[in-house]
Amino acid sequence: MSAAPPMVARLLRVTGVVQGVGFRPFVHRLAVRLSLAGWVRNAAGTVEIHLEGAPDSLDEFARVLHAEAPPVARIEGVASMHAEALGADGFAIADSVDADTLRPVPPDIGVCAACETELFDADNRRFRHPFITCTDCGPRYTIIDSLPYDRERTSMKAFACCPQCAAEYAAPDDRRFHAETVACPACGPRVWCEGLHGEGRADGETAILLAATALHMGAVVAVRGLGGFHLAVDATNDAAIRRLRERKRRDAKPLAVMVRCVADARRLAEVSAREEVALLSSARPIVLLQPRAETRLAASLAPGLDRVGVMLAYTPLHHLLLEAADRPLVMTSGNLSEEPIAIGLDEGRERLRPLVDLFLLHDRDILSRCDDSVVRLAGAHDILMRRARGHAPAPLRLPVASPQPLIAVGPHLKNTFTLVRDDQAFVSPHIGDLEGLEALDHWSQAYARYRALFRVEPTVAVRDLHPGYLSTRLAEELGLARVFTVQHHHAHIAAVAAEHGVTTPVVGVAFDGTGYGDDGHVWGAEVLVCDLAGYRRAAQLAYVGLPGGDLAAREPWRVALGYEALTGGTSPAFALAYYGIPLEMRTLVTQQLTQGVNTPMASSMGRLFDAAAAVLGVRRHASFEGQAAMELEALAGDLPAEPLPFPVRDVDGRLVLDPVPLLSALGEGRRHGADVARLAARFHESVAETAAVVARRVAHDAGLDTVALGGGAFQNVRLLLGIERRLVAAGLHVLVPRLLGPNDGAVSYGQAAVAAWRLSHE
Ligand code: ZN
Ligand code: ZN
Ligand code: FE
User: Fold this and answer.
1) Environment of ion ligand 2 (residues, CB < 5 A)
2) Which of 549, 504, 464, 509 is nearest to 711 (CA)?
3) How far is the CA of 412 from the centre of ligand 3 (A)?
4) What is the pLDDT of residues 507-538, one digit of tens each?
5) Nearest C-alpha neighbor of 141 from the set 426, 363, 338, 432
6) Which ligand is nearest to the CA of 606?
7) In angstroms, what is the span from residue 74 Cα to ligand 2's centroid?
8) Mean of the per-residue pLDDT values for the chain?
9) In what order do the strands lie in the sheet with 46-53?
């Protein structure tokens, strides 16, 4: 007979996203299953587990901890230490210990499969309860007031648990064991609908039915959700969508659609296996999909574009509403174009009244604004085009820890900010354009919440180079001891490098709309040799005058006029760009250009796409920046095409890309009847080919083997993959922006990475 195996004790410290995601209950179940004694507790942002038992069981525990962790948990590390055996009896969830240290706040989690099943199970006591959740799902960040994450520090504190819910909360074998959001029809939040002035209030099921009926009739319904209000309309009703656009003052930007399940998504769009995974992921992002040819979706959803944003219902209320409406619904953020999304009850009523016909409301307060996240699959990459709900406020890592806590205030448009402590970067959800008081208010509120939640008091601010931006004023007015400045495109490339943990020099291809250059001109098509410390501008697109400045981003024909001037006269190849533009207007703008009145010089890839769209006769006026580029991408599709001439000159050691021959060739082709889609494809290939040639030359000359791609123009997937493919074929490493996307949402993180590096090297 062999002796009983020796008992050993071990202390595990688990780091990552492990609080507020059902981790302690999971550990409890696992320990009980493996007959291990001890305890688990939240300790200052980590989870500590004390285990006692047979060595085999301890090993098995360590293995299963990774394999079966709750879906939303993200284990970054498990430190295992020897511990003194306590002779513990059974396994317990111990009180949290808190300390003045970094504590991750869990992101919001889409309704899980088990809760969804219960929601539609007539025998379940939460049948059709619009706030069903468990330890695996439900709101987190948007309802958390402070940490540690316990019910009394969330907006669920207003709802005292009934005895049944309390019993589930206390039962270790229950799915709602320690679920801080546990609630039921007897004790949980309420749903109701009301008219524009509070009239005609109806509760519960009736409210959902009334809202669905209004949607059938083409009404716009304000729906209070998880991170703010949505505006909902019937996605198959063209007239209703037009009405929504008119009221929201959003003429052309694509609108996202919500459906109940992947099968419903498939009826509207092509869904690959990877796209299905993205749709079903716990963040439930908007996924940009290719619409089916015979789709039911109204044409005005994403006019002229080849992608439609689709997301799955992510709250039980969405499920009930979609079931009642029995059709896909447009769900777009509840705001006027570019304003922050509304969250408060009275705020929502006040601000959205002019936009809607009915309110569908609930009384669980939203404490932090959070827009929907947006994902697009590109080649082998999942790119988070907008990182918000379901991701924020989980921290990203910086490759260099900052010796001082800092705040990077972010760019002027499509703003996010980044709060840093050590190597943890807390990137805010999408805030929007920093124009107007409301946006500034939103910024300040979000910043105050972040500081309080993460207990970080910055001593250093980081801002853009532009002296005139509101973000610059913001940074100065914070009154911190020091303010760093970081050039916009350096920040773009730094963000990509930092996301990949790269601190060595890279070739950065920054293709973008607009950023303030260190020579005072508008930059946006730059090839930099850079690291986190600094940059050298090794190549650029030739400067062009932009008559009217910012107006040129909305009027591509003006950019074409600027390029035509570079030909040294007038050229028939550019004629189509001005079709329908009154001659007096054109003459006026030509004068503006030649006299240099309000005509900044720009090297912008965004503007080059605008000029190409104008010359091809695709678009002369845009209702939002980037519209022309998106249409060119849609036109080009995946048509194979040969590049057109796009020469590069060496000017005093800097490579200058000259797009005039390219634009002329496009215009000539169009004049002689070439297919516009084919020309759009050739344009993409030309830019990709020349960019790759230039990046290779710069890499070779600087002795580098890594190229980072960043900037808003890389939202264009054909361009991104076209350049990546060529560089990879040439044996270079290519870093693609994934976690924060290529857009300006990544800039604050890049600013933070640069500042952290500078601070740690002084
Ligand atoms: Zn659940
Ligand atoms: Zn209850
Ligand atoms: Fe940018």
Assistant:
1) 162, 165, 184, 186-187
2) 509
3) 9
4) 999 999 999 999 999 999 999 999 999 999 99
5) 426
6) 3
7) 29
8) 93
9) 74-82, 8-17, 46-53, 37-43, 91-93
User: Which residues are found with C-beta within 5 Å of the ion, ligand 3?
Assistant: 512, 744
pLDDT band at 327 (very low <50, low <70, confident <90, very high): very high
State both tokens at 260: 């109940």
Among candidate residues 348, 352, 271, the one with its CA nearest the CA of residue 311: 271
Instruction: Give the mean model confidence (pLDDT) for residues 66-89.
Output: 86
Tell me phi and psi for residue 399, to 5 degrees. Answer: -70, -20
Query: Got the DSSP string for 392-412?
Result: TTSPEEEEEEEEEEEEE---S
In this structure, of 442-446, 491-495, 598-602, the range with the lowest mean pLDDT score is 442-446
Tokens of 591: 């004068």
Q: Which ligand sits nearest to residue 182's alpha carbon?
A: 2
Contact 746, 737 (CB under 8 A): yes
Q: Which ligand is nearest to the CA of 162?
A: 2
Identify whether the C-beta of residue 598 lies closer than 8 Å to the C-beta of residue 614: no
Q: What is the pTM of this model?
A: 0.92
Residue-level length of the chain? 762
Q: Give the span between the Cα atoms of 400 and 679, in whole angstroms.
A: 45
How far apart are the CA of 119 and the centre of ligand 1, in A?
10
Under 8 Å between Cβ of 636 and 675: no
- Exposed / middle / buried, residue 93 (Cβ in 10 Å: 0-12, 13-18, 19+): middle
Count of Cβ atoms closer than 10 Å to residue 97 Cβ: 11
Query: What is the 105 CA–ligand 2 centroid distance (Å)?
Result: 25
Expressed in percent and rounded to 5, the helix, strand and coil fractions of the chain are 35, 25, 40
Peptide bond into 172 cis (omega under 30): no
CA of 370 to the centre of ligand 2 (A): 27
The two structure tokens encoding residue 607: 């503007």
Q: Kindly tell me if the per-residue pLDDT of 694 is higher than 80.
A: yes
Cα(471) to ligand 3 centroid in Å equals 14
CA 417 – CA 336 distance, rounded (Å): 22
Cα separation, 129 vs 231, in Å, equals: 22
pLDDT at 334: 86
Query: Which residues, including other chains, have CB under 8 Å from residue 259's CB and lie 6 or more apart?
Result: 265, 268, 310, 311, 312, 313, 322, 328
H/E stretch holding 589 reads helix 583-595
| Signed CA dihedral, 345, 346, 352, 356: sign only | positive
The 10s digit of each residue's pLDDT in 214-254 is 999 999 999 999 999 999 999 999 999 999 999 988 778 89
Domains and CATH numbers, the chain: 8-93 (3.30.70.100), 191-362 (3.90.870.10), 388-504+745-760 (3.30.420.360), 510-740 (3.30.420.40)
At 89 the pLDDT is 83
User: 128: which residues sit within 8 A by CB, 6+ positions away?
Assistant: 119, 120, 205, 320
Q: How far, in Å, CA of 726 to CA of 466, rounded?
A: 34
**Which ligand is closest in space to the CA of residue 522?**
3
Share of the chain above pLDDT 90, in %: 80
- The pLDDT score that the predictor gives to residue 251 is 78
For the residues 364-379, what does the mean pLDDT come to? Answer: 94
User: How far is the centre of ligand 2, averaged over its atoms, from the C-alpha of 117 (Å)?
Assistant: 18
Ligand 2 midpoint to CA 42 (Å): 25
Say whether pLDDT at 99 is over 60. no
Percentage of the chain lying above the pLDDT 70 cut = 98
